[in-house]
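Recall the central idea of this unit: under ordinary conditions, the amino acid sequence of a chain determines the structure it adopts. In this exercise we apply that idea directly, starting from the sequence alone.
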Amino acid sequence: MISAVDLRPGRTIDLDGRVMQVLSADNFQPVGRGGGLVRTKLKDIEGGGVFEKTFRSDQKIETAHIERRDHQYLYSDDQYYHFMDNESYEQIQLSLENLGDQRIWLKEGENVTLVSYEEKLIGVEVPNTVDRRVIKTDPGIRGDTATGGDKPAVIEGGAMVTVPLFIGIDDVIRVDTRTGEYVERVSS
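Accordingly, the structure predicted from this sequence is:
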């Protein structure tokens, strides 16, 4: 158990039986009587939702000790996604429900982190940025690049990303997996 004032970004807590990761925590003292408060932004590790919650500064909170292990994504078939533990070489398969929206960032041969809590797999963490090839986009019209416009593009894995007009099919781009936004073009 920790006090609410000890909450920091990255820490995991058990809140009503759900594992939450602290994204931000701000301590403040309201005007008038009463103790301080801690405003937090929490991410549900299993469900993926983000929400805000305010705690009293003296409130005790249960910590959640989660385990993270690096795995290599091998392949997918009709029902499962297959991963290999980088240390023990043990293979594990996960269903689509286990992966959720993270599946669009998977690419064969790349490493991801599998997260478990009390020996139960609760999620997959992909790198913050990934490099992916553009597989579908409209061609840019000559002269439009001066205005700095954007257009939609489909990248490997099926994600839709808004890219600058100069990006074409087969270009490799870097994408932020947390926001799904274009970062830069990568020379291949």
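Residues 65 and 117 are 7 Å apart (CA to CA).
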